[in-house]
Amino acid sequence: NIKAVSWDVAVFLKNKKGYPALSKSHQFMFQMLFGRLGRTLRVLVEGNALAPASTTPIAGGGATSRLHHLQYLRHLRSRPTLIDKLDSEEGILETPYLDHLQSPLQPLGDHLEYQTYETFEKDPVKYKQYGEAVALALQDGIEEGRYDYLGTTRTTMGQLKKMNRLAQGMDDLNFDDFDDADAIDGEFVEVDIHQVTILVVGAGRGPLVRESIASVARVSAAWMNESDESNNENETRKALCAKIIAIEKNPSAILYLQSLKSCEESWNGGQECNGSSDSREEGKVVIPGTSNVTVIGCDMREANSHPVLKNMINNPSSRGDIMVSELLGSFGDNELSPECLDGVQRCGILKDTCISVPQNYTAFIAPVSSARLHSEAKAQAGLPLNSCDGPASASNGIQRALETPYVVRSHAASQTHSEQACWTFSHPHPSSGNTSLPRSGGKNEVKTADNKEVSERNAGAARCINNDRHVHLSFHNDPIHGIGTGCGYGPIDSEMASMASASTEESLSVAIDTAITLHGFLGSFHSVLYESVKSKAGEKVEAVISIAPSSFSTGMFSWFPLYFPLKEPLRVPPGATVNCSIWRQSDNERVWYEWSAEVVSSGTVLSVTSLHNPGGRSYHVRL
Fold first, then answer.
1. Cα–Cα distance between 297 and 249 in angstroms, integer?
2. Which of 75, 163, 429, 540 is the 20 to 30 Å CA partner of 305?
3. CA-to-CA distance for 515 and 505, rounded, in angstroms?
């Protein structure tokens, strides 16, 4: 672990004014060190230097012979590239978590605290991407005619003008001025309303609900604009309205959602809040582009036990068109997203054409060298097994400590190889047989009796799914030791990687002759929230979130990597290959991971680890 860097005054040059400065190569070294370790690194200036002619005393005493050297280093530290890395809101929020091991969440066994929700909701990237994904899904649904025709409503040009402002990116969802729209433009127009049903499963405190409401407003406004610009007098304007079902099991989060429902007009179809579960049932006019939210308190896997959801299941046209969730963990599936989303599908509450956001997510893993993380993992052995038992509690023990994966913002670490994909989960699972349902694009659509049968096949497709996985990966010799991936968290430093790749043959041979020590593996994920059908026509349109270095979502901080420690560090000699085997296992009550590694050189196995966490003896996630 590097704690401090000492700069000898002898390495400094003099600029035109006679003040100390560093060469370009030393400046690059300074930026590299501070970019990686600047939050915990101390800087020293040592050596003898002649004092400038105009010496001035320092308030605390001492000579000024090195003051200008320090001032120059502070100048380098204040460059925008380092400020963006170290002094951004993201960087400040991450600082307390650097190399601090956290046990993964038990999302089904425990209820999240308000502080956890609040931290996640500060992420400026994640929810923007979710909103974009929902908007893309809605646009594709419109083009494919998936959404049921609800009826025709009369509105005013003033309301449509407000929808136009929403389409231009003004996400102000305050509908107070709709009643006064006649004063703006009293011309009444007719709008065909098509209804979309959005299920937000694991709604938390409602950030995904808010993004869904905003996406419906934007897409609906754009759809009405297209109708208005078609110059076809016989074509009625078209708009969306949404029925959003927010499903949550945490009692405190349910109260928060209900309070939003009781006071937010945007959660009540843009109309005055009256405590009704659905304001449209009161006979009020549907405002184009609005959403009505229903809050449901239950486990998403037991949706068929709730009366409101049971009615939706029994009425095929009321089932979900889009399912939105944020159940991903640091390793993609380690917080039981597959089991939860499969459970929703098994209940039969999704239409056969239902879209899931996220559509798929892939787990990645890479070797990591970090004595700091390994020592932190060993230190977990002395912590109490159950913190609620106080001093009388038994300790974790070294076996449990080194057979548990930890969420960590890796800092004093080096990812030695590029990450590789382990496995991918996709949702929802396609049903067998004919999946082409009649589209609901027109007013006169005739419902078929086959819809119920097809939806039952859709639910059945999730009943025979096995979510256990296994992969064996080989990480071949990397002469530059993954220098571009840094600590394993954050985007690849392409400049650093290209410089290392362009090294001279002499310096490269030095790198090849260097052995490394592995202390475990870092797990990450890449998720395609939604890929538009436009991509099939050659145009790549998708919304993505990722903490894998090769595709990292810059600015996102909701997830840190998952550290899989090794009981004994592995020495990897020059030219050797690291093999990693990892399993995702489950039974009726738990899900857990098992992992092992070996080092191979020229076909000979040099070292091998034992199997970590066999049978989930040290760590598991409760179902």
1. 5
2. 429
3. 18
Alpha-carbon distance 496 to 511, whole Å?
15
Q: Does position 162 have pLDDT exceeding 70, yes or no?
A: no
Question: What whole-number distance in Å separates Cα of residue 445 and Cα of residue 297?
Answer: 34
Rounded distance between C-alpha atoms, residue 505 and residue 485, angstroms = 22
| Beta bridge pairs of residue 470 | 583
Backbone angles phi, psi at 48, to 5 degrees: -90, 135
Cα gap 423→584, rounded to integer Å? 10
Whether 429 and 316 have beta carbons less than 8 Å apart is answered as no
State residue 122 phi and psi, 5-degree precision.
-80, -10
Neighbour tally for 611: CB within 10 Å: 12
pLDDT score of 394: 81
- Tens digits of residue pLDDT in 274-318: 655 554 554 566 788 889 999 999 999 998 889 999 999 999 989
Q: Report residue 129's pLDDT band, with 50, 70 and 90 as the boundaries.
A: very high
| SS3 label, residue 407 | strand
Report pTM: 0.85
Cβ-Cβ contacts under 8 Å for 61 (sequence gap 6 or more): none
382-393: average pLDDT: 73
Neighbours of 185 (CB within 10 A): 14
Q: CA-to-CA distance for 323 and 334, rounded, in angstroms?
A: 20
Residue ranges in 144-168 assigned as alpha helix (H): 157-167
